[in-house]
Every structure is written in structure tokens, then in C-alpha cells.
Amino acid sequence: MSPLEDLNRAYLEARASDEYVKELDHLLQVYVGRPTPLYPAQRLSEALGVRIYLKREDLCHTGAHKINNALGQALLAKRMGKTRIIAETGAGQHGVATAAAGALLGLESEIYMGTDDMQRQALNVFRMELMGARVTPVPSGSRTLKDAINEAMRDWVTNVRNTHYLLGSVL
What we know:
Distance between the termini: 16 Å
CATH architecture: 3-Layer(aba) Sandwich
Oligomer: single chain
Strand order of the largest sheet: 5-4-3-6
Mean pLDDT: 96
CATH class: Alpha Beta
């Protein structure tokens, strides 16, 4: 349990650190493009008789909200002295966000992805590789996210000293 206790301790320290919070806030604003705007959904509002707004997370760098989590975790990993981040991905958005965070912070990035998912999401595989991540195919089992999680977990327990597993799935 020591690695998880170390992670918890590092998180609590970072959360209480003005320096960490300011750096993360700065990166979220300058690199990610936060805060993202609210867009009034006028026709839907009129049809339902209420005011409805859409939060435009698609305008974040990498095209989704996933970068918010990835950047915070990668910054924490760097603060902990980790030199490498790994992740699992299915559709590829978490992998793209992890690759972007790793590239920004100078961390080696490896993304595990089932071979079936890699074929379906070839554009996201290209985007991850474009940002310097190594995308490792997982040809076992169902060749999808479930098996990518298993491979990422195996990697992390083997390389816990220098590697942070940047979780993107609820396990």
C-alpha cells in the first residue's frame, strides 16, 4: 500500500500548496483554455420553457474535459519526482490528454490501448504519437479498454518508482 499512501500524501501536500494550485490554475487557463464559456441553448430553452446553457468543454485544448484531470495528475506526478506517466484509453480522449500533459511537462508517456480500439480510433492514436507518446497495443482478451487497464496496471506495479499511473477510468 505504500505507493498509494505516498500518492495520497503527495496529493494532500499539493492541494495545500499555493505554488501547486497557482501553477495548475495557470496551466488550465493558458494551456487548456479555461474557463470555457457557457452557451445559451436558446431554441431548447424556448421549447422547454426554461433557461438552458451548454458548457463548452469541447473548446478545451485536446477537445474534451479529459485534459483537466490529466494535467492535474501529471503535475502531481512531476512534483513527486516521477519521470514517466502511463494511462489506459478506449476511445482515445484520455490518451490524447495524457500525451498532451506529458509533452507539456517533459514526462515520458506511454498509453495502453486495445488493438480493436486502436483500429476504431486511429486518429486519436495518431494524435497521441504526434505529441510524443508511445501507444502500446494490447492484443489480448477482448482487445479493448478492459485489457488495456490490465496491461497498464502490470506496468505500474513493475515500475512504481519512476511511473505514475494516470487513471482515466473508474476501477
